[in-house]
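We treat protein structure as text, and this decision shapes the records that our systems exchange. The remainder of this section carries one protein's record, kept here as part of the documentation:
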Amino acid sequence: MTELLGANTDTLDRIAESLRVDARRMQDIRTQAQRAVAELQGGWTGLDLWHLTQQWEQETSPQLASASTSLDTCAAELRAQSTAQREASSNDRDGWGSLPTRIAPSAALGIPLLPGPGDNTPTRPPMRGSPTDNASWWRSLSALQQGRVIKEHPDWIGNRDGVPFTARDQANRALLSVNRARLVAERRRLEADLAAHRFEGAFNDVQALEHVQDKLASLNAIDQTLARTGQRQLLLLDMSQERAQAAIARGNVDSADNVAVFVPGMGTNVTDSMKGYDTNMDQLQRRAELEDKRVHPSEDLTTATVTWIGYQTPQLGWDLIGDNSVADDHAAKAGATQLVPFLQGIGAARDHDAHLSLLGHSYGTTTAGLALRQNTGVDDVVFFGSPGVGTSHLDDLLVPKGHTYYIEARWDPVGDLGRFGIDPSHMDGVEHASAKESTVVDPNTGEIRHFTEVTGHTSYLVDESTSQYNMSVVVAGVPDRRVFDRGEGIGDVLSWPLPGTYR
């Protein structure tokens, strides 16, 4: 008996791939339609627009998302059947004796397995599970059960660290519409209250309305970012805080060889910052892949970059005082408690390790540094424009020795503050990288490349700058190609005698 038992696996694989392509096409249609609705909202007012928006947000958009998820689920089931078919046929050419116990003869013969009562009902995820616990729970589910979770319980996994990011992306895209519908309803209620001249508590209503409008603007910013050319994944969506929190990846975090997570600092918010930082991360991803190709021309290595706005960063204005002040580490500590499991979840969700880099800017370096006092799986960290990384001692950071890098541009006063630990320019063991104008000669080809200087506090990620180049080679796993410079100026001379007491 030499032929394959049961269904033709090539046919199953071909249909599965066709369904996967259809799922992506359905998602693209939804994205294009969302963009069209957003354009209408920008130039049209009135009851007709409200009815159209309601129909889109509560009916059409969820239906398109559900259709895409269903197609993905069917594709996954066919791939699983194909894999089981191949295993069954290869393990037992002459009888049933050596079939894996999880494959029934009916499956080996190509007969669809009909689940018994309750077989398709997924178990709930573990309460307060670690990323490893969550990963184990997800893997315990069948492909059909996983599809049901995405479709029926997206809130279970959207922000659940340890679950693969492809599934989290699908869940969070579905939750976009759910959150928008809830916020639109809340906005209408608050507007009705104010229109009715209910002056008692009106100030609170005005503040609440501003928060709702900002969150709706955040959702629009997320939609516009996801609609950009190139693969995007919505890894995090949290509307429960004062301001929206989100993380968006450029590339596939589940499969990329290199993954870089960027943590921004003061003044960052989803509404105003996500699109700009996503542009920076898109550029950095492409630069890192080019640097990888220069060193490994015969390999097709991939990179994914993540903009992580997963905490309430200090904002300008009243946030300059109080618990969420940029002069206080309260927000950084709170952010670190969210960043640690997110980083751990990258390793837990994957079937093979990625080269994981963490990038921190400004107050984000303090958040990142505090997170790195726990095991996160980070292989390399780049701090830039740092007021201190949460310690004065590099040994407190659980990063491989020699893999902590610091970039400080000229005329960046924040880099000399030493507010949350000693000025990183003076930390023993830190590896330095330049932000000045530079010329790089490729050792393999002899190609000469020129990179521009950045100055001040906000330009480190500028495309084709020396600082961006240095980040790209670290992200690509070839840090020896970086341009070295201690970056010290008059501010560092002044900060040198101030060792700091923060630990």
About this structure: The beta strands are 232-238, 245-250, 258-263, 303-309, 355-361, 380-384, 404-407, 431-433, 438-441, 448-451.
